[in-house]
Design goal:
- This protein has a single domain, classed as Tachylectin-2, Chain A, CATH 2.115.10.
- It has 3 helices and 26 strands.
- The strands form 6 sheets. Strands 1, 2, 5, 6, 24, 25 and 26 form a 7-stranded antiparallel β-sheet that branches. A 5-stranded mixed β-sheet has the order 15-16-17-18-22, with no helix packed on it. The protein has a 4-stranded antiparallel β-sheet with strand order 7-8-9-10, with no helix packed on it.
- The chain starts with 8 loop residues before the first helix and ends with a strand.
């Protein structure tokens, strides 16, 4: 969900003013242009006082970029997936667009720039551009693999709550939506706090191939976030226990099947985020999902963090990417932050 619906623009301005003294983006920008779309990537070299390669709580900081563009359709980055071995990626925007490109790394293995960027409207099942804001609110994206190769993406929407698949052609989503059957209680719940997280379990997971759906604002009688597993053999309800003052906003599986959940909230006048890891064996129908905290951050090192993905970094080892939704506001940023687990 775009947080500007609940937090006034003034909050974003205050956050940016407070974070000005701790901004970590350097002055040097790396420019990359494709199809007349130019993204300026400002390197981020420090995170919570950590240098690249140093520990930060339960993770290792690997660097990041702040992405800027004069194109008014670039922004609202609410979900993320990697669609090729060369760090090809796709963002989904909560204004109903796919933003595709390639993440480049420098010689030290740090994120350096986003190139080859194209923006295309999401289509409905008839192959027509989504007609109005109510149906465009895409909040989650996960990659579907067949024989270890990305073949499609699965997208979760709120407001008109639904899940749909889109084919990949050369790593870019194309064509009409293919609707995915989800429980009726989800499709009947039409608010901007429904589906926030959608992720597919990898081959090493005990629930391999199953899709996990997590909601932001659908709360059960125990005060937990309602979720559901879609799978042939692993199908049924789950619940998620979030932190105090934060809600799940995205999920991703590690290659070994462990589940990562990104949580987002507001602490006083600043954005807050938490990253949680849940053991693979604990993710199953009927489970109350609760894990260990890998990272928590508040204030100027982060923004409205909404998107989470795991991919193979330049060294071939898993990297964890967390990206932010700027809400198309001048007071918020499009950040891409990268971490890894300790050896």
């Amino acid at each position: 969900m775009s947080h500007s619906r609940r937090a006034p623009r003034l909050l974003g301005a205050i956050v940016m003013l407070l974070s000005a003294g701790v901004a970590v983006s350097t002055v040097l920008g790396l420019r990359a242009a494709a199809d007349d779309l130019t993204i300026t990537s400002l390197p981020i070299t420090h995170f919570m006082s950590a240098n690249v390669g140093e520990p930060v709580q339960g993770l290792i900081w690997r660097g990041g970029i702040e992405m800027q563009s004069q194109i008014d359709t670039f922004g609202g980055l609410s979900g993320l997936g990697f669609t090729g071995p060369d760090a090809r990626l796709v963002f989904v925007s909560d204004r109903g667009n796919f933003i595709s490109g390639q993440l480049l790394y420098d010689e030290a293995g740090r994120p350096a720039s986003l190139i080859g960027v194209t923006i295309s409207p999401i289509q409905n099942s008839r192959g027509v551009e989504l007609p109005r804001a109510y149906v465009r609110d895409a909040e989650a994206l996960t990659v579907i693999e067949r024989d270890g190769v990305p073949s499609a993406i699965r997208v979760g929407f709120e407001n008109l709550t639904r899940v749909a698949d889109f084919q990949l052609v050369d790593g870019v989503p194309e064509g009409p939506a293919r609707e995915v059957n989800i429980p009726k209680f989800l499709s009947d719940t039409r608010t901007n706090e429904t589906l926030e997280a959608v992720c597919v379990a990898p081959a090493a997971s005990p629930i391999a191939g199953s899709t996990l759906l997590l909601t932001e604002g659908i709360i059960d009688d125990d005060g937990q976030h309602v979720g559901y597993l879609l799978g042939k053999n692993d199908r049924g309800p789950v619940s998620y226990v979030s932190g105090v003052g934060t809600n799940p906003t995205d999920c991703a599986f590690m290659p070994n099947g462990d589940l990562l959940v990104l949580e987002r909230g507001i602490a006083l006048i600043a954005f807050r985020m938490r990253l949680i890891r849940i053991p693979a064996a604990d993710v199953k129908p009927g489970a109350h999902l609760k894990g260990e905290q890998l990272l928590e951050s508040i204030g100027g090192d982060i923004d409205n963090m909404e998107a989470l993905a795991v991919h193979a970094g330049p060294d071939g080892k898993p990297r964890i990417i967390i990206a932010s939704d700027n809400n198309f506001s001048d007071f918020e940023r499009n950040l891409l932050l990268e971490f890894s687990l300790p050896e």
